[in-house]
Amino acid sequence: MTPLMSRVVGLVVATLAWPVIGLLVQWVLSSAVPFGHIGDVLGVGIGTVVGGIAAYNLYFTRVVHVPMNWVGVERLLGRATGTVYGDGDFWVPPLFSLRNVPGRDIRITLLMPHEKINTQDGSLVYFGVDEGEPDKRNRILYSIVNPVAYIPVESPEDNLREAYLEQARIFFSKATTAVGVKNEKTLFSDFVVLPPLRVSGAAKKHDAMTERLEETTFSEEGTFRRAAAQNEGARLFRDEGVVEIMKNAGEFIEHAASWGIGDIHAFTPNVRVNPEAEAAASTKQAERENAESLKTRAAAVTAEAQRMQREARVTPDLAATMVYALSDKDAEAHIAHNTQNYPGIPEALVSVAKALIAAFDNKGNSSERKSK
Questions:
Q1: Could you tell me where in the chain the CATH 3.30.479.30 domains are found?
Q2: Is residue 355 over pLDDT 70?
Q3: How far apart are CA 165 and CA 137, in angstroms?
Q4: In 3-state terms, what secondary structure has residue 165?
Q5: Single pTM value for the model
Q6: Could you give the C-alpha distances from 270 to 82, 126, 136, 144, 316, in angstroms and in order?
Q7: Is 108-273 a domain of CATH 3.40.50.300?
Q8: How far is the C-alpha of 297 from the C-alpha of 291, rounded, in Å?
């Protein structure tokens, strides 16, 4: 029924209710007041007023507004009748009501709960743990596709969160280690939105997911490779783990459909290992890289000092000091700190070093010109 037609019906009902209620009030008063025709006179006047007020309330208080892109689900004594209204202003008869629900075109974002999940080797996957940063929470995007099935559910959002978290527990608990999981963000996202097998075309998607789970491997650093392309690294899921995971494939979407929810897209950017362990690993890697850098610089300083000893006849200590001073922007401050009891010496060393190197370079250039 259109909004206009429903209001026309409401107006007709209210118009008919006016005289009916007025006559009923008149009959009651005429029966209750036995003094001649006083009851009839009072009944006409009071009945007309009471009937008008009742008709007014019957029409104007029963008009319900359904916002744009929402739908109104009709209920009789609190139970859905199966009738759904579009947006607009509708007149609703007595004993009936409308429950407004977001339409299918409205996309709803729901933040997902977090949990620390043990993998097969006992390490922890930090699933959705935001540490006070809500932007890093995992989430799903969904629409209400069946409002009649949606409104009887007491807490559909809580149900969705619990069903989603149960799928995460099943999935990540079958992983061989947390290190292998942290860089694979789309694998779980694609798994959790698999349709149930009864849906047309679902079998092909299930087979493709099974293949992905069997082929996904990881290196020690957690970098993923396809086993079919490169036979290196360990498998993220063993055969028995893949079987257990796929037994539950499609359950989340099936549960959501029973609650009137569909068009689900999952986003899981926050899947990682213990932050403290990860920070320790990063520090260790930085120290390893710094050691390699220092080793390279030390080799270069040694080579340059040996060249200056050999070609410029500079003593080993002075050569090392000059090379160090010229190769490090903080060298002068460092030398000054170590020689603070001898004012002027650091600057002199640097100046001498620069002069010697300049002289050495000029000598080399002169030799080249003579040879030509």
A1: 108-273
A2: no
A3: 13
A4: helix
A5: 0.67
A6: 40, 8, 6, 26, 55
A7: no
A8: 10
